[in-house]
Amino acid sequence: MNVRPGAKGLVIIGLVVLAVIATTGSLLVYVRQEAFMSERTLLSRSLALQASELRDVDPYTSLKLSVAAVHINADAASRKSLHESLLVLRREDLFTLNPGGASSVALSQDGHVALIKDDDGIAVWDLSEILDADMEGDVKKGDRLEGDYEDVSVLALSSDGRTALIGQDNGTAVLWDLNNLAQPIRLAAINAGAASDSYRPIEALALSRDGRTACVGDRDGNFSIWDLSAKTKPVRRSHVRSLGNGRISSISLDADARLTAILTGDRDVAIWDLGRHDNPIQLSRLDLPFEIAEPISITADGRKILVGSSHRADVWSLADPAKPIHTVTLDMPNQDLYGIAISDSEKIALFAGDGGSVPLWDLSIQSRPTNISSLKNYSREVTHIAVSANGEVALTASPDRGVTMWDLRELPEMLEDPVGVACDGPNGQEFTREEWTRYAGDADWTRYGGGLWGKDTLSACRIDWALSLNPRRESQGEAGKVM
Question: Which fold has domain 92-409?
Answer without folding.
Answer: Methylamine Dehydrogenase; Chain H (2.130.10)
